[in-house]
Specification:
Elements: E1 4-11, E2 17-24, E3 31-36, H1 47-54, E4 58-63, H2 84-99, E5 105-110, H3 112-124, E6 130-134, H4 146-158, H5 176-184, H6 195-211, E7 219-224, H7 232-241, E8 247-252, H8 265-277
Parallel strand pairs: 3-4, 3-5, 5-6, 6-7, 7-8
Antiparallel strand pairs: 1-2, 2-4
Length: 279
């Protein structure tokens, strides 16, 4: 029996049409993995991850975050309140459960998707079998001074849509083909981070920092040690403080931000599948 892929849209609680897609393996389905992508990107950048998972018997579901990729919303990547993302994820998980009743459900979040899934798991205590994180944004880098953070909060109130810092594409991966594809992808947002988005991301990280102990589900935390876009120390802190009695931290020496788009991506994917098999 062949594996299958479908796509469509669903409507958020406030009326935005969000793009979704899902894959089913050809034979028996062991569990469902829901992928939540990172800031500025979209779900099509995880096709190779989905392929690896369905080859091992896992169904995969994912969607483009609001104001990202093929989902609606303007201006692109703007966040009025970070709570919009956990709200959308809650709605999406209801759809996934309706599509796969009774199957174990895992969450996978990369970068800002890791912020969303961690905050969601902390605050809403969903019925999931486990949480997998890749380069999660859990801690603001120490390179930002308290004065700069305070100034950014003021700017976010006065000029919320003002584009500020632009992400360095070269920090995504050591593979030049990955960087080139990232820069030329029309669905990847390459403008500056809107001021309100940055402030809301920081607020979400502060909330996570205050409550990491509330994460009680089985955890696989993965991070490249040479990640210049998100701080690996945040992943180490979550490992140390999470309330889960079943947690694992994998730090990949020398890897950049997108560990699943590095030359060692097959090893990372194999580690994910091994962990899923054990859970």
């Amino acid at each position: 029996m062949e594996s299958s892929h479908s796509s469509g849209t669903f409507e958020s609680r406030d009326g935005l049409k969000l793009f979704e897609q899902w894959w089913s393996p050809g034979g028996t389905t062991k569990a469902v993995v829901v992928i939540v992508h990172g800031y500025g990107e979209h779900s099509n950048r995880y096709l190779h991850v989905a392929d690896g998972l369905i080859r091992n018997g896992y169904a995969v579901s994912t969607f483009d975050l609001r104001r990202h990729g093929q989902s609606e919303g303007q201006p692109r990547t703007f966040v009025r309140s970070f709570d919009e993302h956990p709200d959308d994820l809650a709605e999406y998980l209801d759809r996934v459960r309706d599509r796969h009743p009774g199957l174990p459900l895992f969450l996978f979040g990369h970068s800002m998707g890791g912020t969303i899934t961690t905050l969601f798991t902390m605050t809403r205590q969903p019925d999931i079998r486990g949480l997998l994180l890749s380069g999660a944004t859990l801690k603001l880098s120490d390179k930002y001074s308290p004065a700069l953070i305070a100034l950014a909060k003021i700017v976010s109130l006065l000029l919320p849509k003002l584009p500020l810092l632009k992400l360095d594409a070269g920090a995504v991966s050591r593979d030049p083909e990955v960087v080139s594809a990232y820069e030329s992808d029309p669905l990847v947002y390459r403008g500056g981070v809107p001021a309100r988005t940055g402030a809301e991301m920081n607020r979400a990280m502060e909330q996570i920092q205050r409550g990491m102990e509330a994460v009680a589900v089985p955890l696989l935390i993965m991070h490249g040690t040479t990640d210049l876009l998100t701080d690996p120390e945040g992943s180490s802190q979550l490992y140390d403080r999470a309330g889960s009695g079943d947690k694992e931290l994998k730090l990949y020496e020398g890897l950049y931000h997108e560990i699943l788009n590095e030359p060692e991506k097959e090893r990372v994917l194999a580690d994910m599948v091994d962990w899923l098999e054990r859970h």
